[in-house]
Amino acid sequence: MPLMSASIAQSPVYNPPLEPYVSIVHQDADILVLDKPSGLLSVPGRDPALSDSLATRVRAQFPKSQMINRLDKDTSGLVLMSLNRRAHAHIAAQFEARQTEKSYVSIVWGIVEADDGLIDLPLAIDPENKPRHRVDHANGKPAQTRWRVLERGGGTTRLQLFPLTGRTHQLRVHMKAAGHVILGDAFYAEGEALGASARLLLHAEMLRFQHPDGSIMTFTVPCPF
What residues form the membrane-spanning segments (predicted)? Predict the structure, then answer.
């Protein structure tokens, strides 16, 4: 019998955390505010091995829930889901119009000398290295990130990051472009910066938006690192 020459595609390695299974920060008739752990997808991937996600877990209990904002698998922190169409449309429009406020905490490689600043660099997907993104002045979409130093020491800097736009991998690519990759970033860090942490040291700490009832709501979850 001839040997089979075609290789069998292997499923991606994915071991999402199980504790806590779902962490609800706030719940009312319109929305859920959740604290997503690092290592868990926001939504399921195409491969059946990537079916477990925050959205999948939440929909088992709240079948009508819909994701409003997402975080990268390795980023932890605040995620917002709607429980009805009216709430979804109301809040999703705020994200689209950049009317929400968000802040993240990160630890980056190297000592950042200035105390604060703005990174304004357009981003696009890297066609030769998907799903990674890159700075692309010719074809990229506008992307802006404000930042300020929280602490320096041990050859690293703790930053607070304020994304003014919501591009994929924005904070990760902007920090790499600034010469200070986020520790543990499997996509953009190398060498010591990659090996300095078992997880990506990026956490969505604060989220502010207008609730469908008209009130301004602000949520924070403590940084786990």
Answer: none
